[in-house]
Write a structure and sequence with these properties.
single chain; about 210 residues; alpha+beta; two-stranded antiparallel sheet; 9 strands; globular
Length: about 210
Amino acid sequence: FTVPAFISSSIDMLNKWEKLCGKEGSCEVNVWPYLRELSADAISRAAFGNSYEEGNRVFELITEQVDLIRPILKSIHIPGWRLYPPIAGTIRRVCEEVKLGDNVLPEGVIVRLSNNVHQNKNLWGVDAKEFNPNRFKDGLSKASGGNVSLFSFGWGPRNCIGSNFAMIEAKVALVLILQRFSLKLSSSYEHGPIAKETIQPQFGAQIILKPLAN
């Protein structure tokens, strides 16, 4: 049921984009709110069998909770970072004393694993800060040189249970988008990632959409 749910959610979003473009041939759209709605809609359909609109209040409450805790968290704004994880960092508690490199971590210490490791040139090469999806064409292990240096969804037994769900959703949506639109970054786009519940574009994601001929 999961893939059909993703397809239905994606098609609903694309139909909205086509209406926005109308007969103009192309249009500028801030795609970020649509992608957020896509994720919420896909989760609702796959998990509960109802659409985003019917479960709208649930997602509104989640957003309100995030806005309440935001002042407690430190915002992250790093211009030029091109390899973004969905979260700003991972926190773990050391259960027993362990040696990590030259450091000894005692039991009970709280360790924050910064996702800045995702732009470390020693791990990813000289183009670590560049947007280069081709780095993963031969798999994650080869891209990272066998190091556990990409932990966007955690790692090991504590790996995020939604990681496969998210990856399938992203692949389905991307395939359907590219079948119906060509994409170009708008000149009005302002780069400013910020940490909320996930890393998000602070000023939106303005894209020039051009419907492809049937």
